[in-house]
Write a structure and sequence with these properties.
15 strands; homodimer; 15 helices; 420 residues; alpha/beta
Chain lengths: 420, 420
Amino acid sequence: MKEKLVGALMFGQSGGPSSVINASAAGVFTEALKHSDCITKVYGLAHGIRGLLDEDFYDIGQEDEKELLLLKNTPSSALGSVRYKLADPKKDDTDYKRMLEVFKKYNVRYFFYNGGNDSMDTCNKISKFMKKSGWEMRVMGVPKTIDNDLFGTDHCPGYASAAKYVATTTMELKLDATVYDKPMITVIEAMGRHAGWLTAASALACTKGLGPDLIYLPEVPFTKEKFLADVKAKYEANNGKVMICVSEGIAGEDGVLIAEKMNENVAKDSFGHVQLGGVGQMLATLCAKEFGCKTRGIEFSLMQRCGAHLASKVDVEEAFKSGAQAVKYAVAGRTDKMVVIKRDMSSGKYKGKMSAVPLKLAANTEQKIPQEWIINNGTMLSQAYVDYALPLIQGDCKAPLEDGLPRFAHLKKVQAGKKA
Amino acid sequence: MKEKLVGALMFGQSGGPSSVINASAAGVFTEALKHSDCITKVYGLAHGIRGLLDEDFYDIGQEDEKELLLLKNTPSSALGSVRYKLADPKKDDTDYKRMLEVFKKYNVRYFFYNGGNDSMDTCNKISKFMKKSGWEMRVMGVPKTIDNDLFGTDHCPGYASAAKYVATTTMELKLDATVYDKPMITVIEAMGRHAGWLTAASALACTKGLGPDLIYLPEVPFTKEKFLADVKAKYEANNGKVMICVSEGIAGEDGVLIAEKMNENVAKDSFGHVQLGGVGQMLATLCAKEFGCKTRGIEFSLMQRCGAHLASKVDVEEAFKSGAQAVKYAVAGRTDKMVVIKRDMSSGKYKGKMSAVPLKLAANTEQKIPQEWIINNGTMLSQAYVDYALPLIQGDCKAPLEDGLPRFAHLKKVQAGKKA
């Protein structure tokens, strides 16, 4: 236990929303408010580091505890998010100096940042700069990403709820899409630019006999020819009923996105400047042409990342705990770390344990699906993936109903910074 | 109470699936199996009247009761659906004679058909033909449609669950789509070719402060000019954050779908024969061009009609009851009717009561949203709509979880007909 460090805590949310990023906020806030002997104020940044640079933040101590706990089941980023890439401080340290100024002005001694790869890079840079500047502070990263591609953690808070959305909805769609006694090719598109974790979750539906026949991930180079041959084999085996799940990020050997390749020759300047659908819709259309049957492209779009009504209980609880653990670590003297989840199977049953890794390891490193988990000539996930993912989607946990609709958190957002 | 009629019952599902069409099947089956004194066999038709014409049906008496009850929470049509328009019997009675032959062969005295407008037309034609032929039988329609456009009923089983999906998901999307401190126009597309009931359900999200700013229904002629002016006003009032919900079926004064109008000049024969997104995506692209900001088109696609994990308890129970009530009516001697739901507010609280109307009234009549419920110059729903719809989406009712995923019904489907 290091010496007690007394001062304010600042917390920000960054990157794309998830169903449980607010659960981590609830974990940070409720735990921080317990440590009033060292954490004198708890601030929530409006729009991440944008709020830090602009002195735009809220006094979380003014919020009702009930509302803070409702954050556990409120999707998206309640404080607002941001995508802002900090410069290399060796080239331009303007932003860093400004942050230091704000930290000093409000005696901020705890800085926590919640996000994915880019956000951990931001957090790491701030941590290193403040250390070099001699401003004593404890900096912690709290992991979050539906993409599940953060390095150093077994999985990321946010992934399991999105995976549960993908698996459950795929099961429902399978029942719907096979209802007529006619051929039908359905192509579902899930998020994932570089890693196919979310698309892979459709394989969980296969364990119930209601999954896709073919899965395409960014981890496997995609060719139109192999795709059509794969579909043809399934089409013939299943009386023309084929369900396919693809990642938005599938790409050719050359690394160029299939969506871009297929877009190339399309008129760009027609009436209404019609924008094309995603790669799922494009492949559905390709199949319609090739097989002459009905097809449908379905995009899970933002629903997969904000569908908190389908959140996993394990995920909500781990997201909350990872936030609370960040506070405990920092109060105990740790800094420059990202909280991670370790898989503990010692009891024979899955248990998630909190731990921490150096921030610089988590920053900008992508974790993809192991190649050995991708089977059937690159079109399906193995049992090893199912064993990995299934424990994470257990249990339901959603907002209470009010008039039949979710009762999400209402924050007062009492301004604490001197916003310009 | 009419004389007892002894014979088999045949039940078929028709038209597009819904989250609760199987709940009606569960109601028919469990009630019918109680009346073995007059209902000697309970048959489930594979793919609606296709199964009748092909002698392709299942012996429901062989199913486990537990699985029949799980149908209450299993989306889509477990028996398979069909879209098959019967000829006018005056012009061509081939199909009708074939049906009569099958009814006689299996001594079918009860025929129940579950579906929307077209299905009630089918049911009505069969009822009239069999009466004319002198084959004594009791024919009942069981209403089903997410479109909520069936005549003679306060609302249709299937609507409320789809409406709950639309309202809940719109709330989640609103939180997600407004998370960055930048302009963003989101256009959500809901189903509804001729009636805007499903799109209207997004107005329920407004009651929680998380709804769309603008709603466009097929009931109101659409012009691009007014649309852009409406969006501009909201864009300026809300710092560039605008959410819009549109029906797939919005059309101009001339009745031509906007989706078709916007499609007109787009290259149709490019690489991969790329198919265009729906009208939501098109309007999002139009806004991107007009306002120069980020936009996103989101389609609820099949999820809105098969998202049984978000089913309304009121809807599931009414769907079940309407199936059971059809059996009770028929056993008591009624025929040539469709079961309907009447709204009973006599206790001050909503209560749905079962009743019946002549089949011919329900066939092919569309019920649209009353014009007086459409306010704000055709862009919003009134409190009268909210008062109508909110009682219908109350309560949750979904399949039990198994491994964190829904446990849907597994039917044995023991073949009973002499399928060719």
